[in-house]
Amino acid sequence: MKPPPFSYHDPSNVGEVISLLGSLENPKLLAGGQSLMPMLNMRYVMPDHVIDLNKVEGLSYIKEDGGTISIGGMTRQRDLEYSDVMKAKCPLMHDALLQVGHRQTRNRGTIGGSLSHLDPAAELPAVCAAHDAVVIVQGPNGEREIPFSEFPLGYMTPATEMDELLTGVKIPAWAEGHGYAFVEFSRRHGDFAITSAAALLEVGSDGGITRASLTVGGVGAAPVRMNDIEQALIGQSGDEERFRELCEACREIDALGDVYASSEYRQHLATVLSRRALVKAYDRATGKA
Amino acid sequence: MGETRKISLSVNGKTYEEEVEVRFTLADFLRQQLGLTGTHLGCEHGVCGACTILLNGRSARSCLMLAVQADGQEITTIEGIAPSEEEMHPLQEAFRDNHGLQCGFCTPGMLTTLIEFLGDNPDPTEQEVREAISGNLCRCTGYQGIVAAALDAAQRLREAKGV
């Protein structure tokens, strides 16, 4: 038996979760458990109370309303992977999910857990950054919305307050037929990426890019949107050499270095993967892939 | 003993009512409390896949779940996949015939993972099989035999269904 001793709570609604968060000392929320359970087993975290969200009603859903997809915080990665709505409206997430862990972990892992854990190399935060998603949190004073650009406060630190629960996320869909690609480099399939790149492109009938989003994961403390590259892409055709030149800017990202990969190596991967993501997204937008 | 809870769950079709310590992982519960030691524990932090079980038919790592979370759920372990005492599951037969196990430590996790996978994808390519078992580490590095067994099992299961 590896986890440290704790008290276990399994509330059935969001209100109970919030009052538990407000009244308990040193609590930890348990969503899908694919990050928290290893941390408990290794005793990286020693909470006095574990609040299990798996019996909380109404937190698992995928809804589409106009141009926005709403996803409940406890929606399993597997359900997102197999969702026709996600495949049709947010294919970038489907592309990314196939690279999230393994079938056994996607069956349990949740989008809310992934966003709250906020590993810099995790795929779902990068997708949310790419899509300008809005995170919905609920606390004692009701609900508030946090644009994803303001959600990571730093390394593995979400903007959720201690007495707040991430209840869902809203993802604005891009125009039908848009190009998308999520590419990553990892040592083995299913590992956290050393570096990843997510691209979204809308292309006009003349072949010129009309809208672009490019996000690099695993390099900075949180996913990084490459705003300058995005602006420079407008009006460009799908010329790979031009993409290559533009993506050189990824070498300027303030990069993490660790025992697995140096900061220079991550910056290099970011330039290569960004280019590949743009090429793939452009080809998809123009029906070539 | 710390805080405990009473849980009721089905394991391999049999209902158990048990008092469990809340910090017990499902894997420890299955092995130590129910004596079902077919579920193996390698890394105990979600990397090796040896402890994979089926939770309501879907594969999950039992070291990354608390036993209390299995309350009211249906669990299938390696002990529960064969149709009877005398007969093996087609996947077990294919593993035997293709030298899909050497030391056998990873086998329970390989089989439970592949049962779900082949249910979702009855006619996989070799690459798809390799990806499906990428979350299961074989310490003998006997992947070639495991992949061959999985492809063979897929064919046997398709033939059994008359496809």
Which features characterize this protein?
heterodimer, A: 289 residues, alpha+beta, Uridine Diphospho-n-acetylenolpyruvylglucosamine Reductase, domain 2, Uridine Diphospho-n-acetylenolpyruvylglucosamine Reductase, domain 3, Enolase-like, domain 1, four-stranded antiparallel β-sheet, 11 helices, 14 strands, 31% helix, 25% strand, globular, B: 163 residues, Ubiquitin-like (UB roll), DNA polymerase, domain 1, 2 domains, five-stranded mixed β-sheet, 5 helices, 5 strands
Secondary structure layout:
The complex is a heterodimer of chains A (289) and B (163).
Chain A: E1 7-9, H1 14-23, E2 27-30, H2 36-41, E3 49-52, E4 62-65, E5 68-72, H3 77-81, H4 84-89, H5 91-97, H6 103-106, H7 111-117, H8 123-130, E6 134-139, E7 142-147, E8 152-154, E9 157-158, E10 165-172, E11 179-185, E12 195-203, E13 209-217, E14 224-225, H9 227-233, H10 240-247, H11 263-285
Parallel strand pairs in A: 1-3, 2-3
Antiparallel strand pairs in A: 4-5, 5-10, 6-7, 6-10, 8-9, 11-12, 12-13, 13-14
Helix pairs in contact in A: 10-11
Chain B: E1 4-11, E2 14-21, H1 26-33, E3 52-55, E4 58-61, E5 74-76, H2 90-97, H3 107-120, H4 126-132, H5 143-161
Q: How are the strands of the biggest sheet of chain A laid out side by side?
A: 4-5-10-6-7
Mean pLDDT of chain A: 96
Whole-Å distance between the termini of chain A? 50 Å
CATH 2nd-level architecture of the largest domain in chain A = 2-Layer Sandwich
Reading the helices and strands of chain A in chain order gives EHEHEEEHHHHHHEEEEEEEEEHHH
Looking at the overall shape, the CATH architecture of the largest domain in chain B is Roll
Mean pLDDT of chain B: 96
Q: Which parts of chain A are unreliable, with pLDDT below 50 for 5 consecutive residues or more? A: none
Structural class of chain B: alpha+beta
Strand content of chain A: 15-25%
Task: Report the uncertain regions of chain B.
Answer: none
Strand order of the largest sheet of chain B: 2-1-5-3-4
Largest interface: A-B, 31 and 33 residues
Order of helices and strands of chain B: EEHEEEHHHH
Distance between the amino and carboxyl termini of chain B: 53 Å
SS elements, strand count of chain A:
14
Helical content of chain B, roughly? 25-40%
Query: What structural class do you assign from the helix and strand content of chain A?
Result: alpha+beta
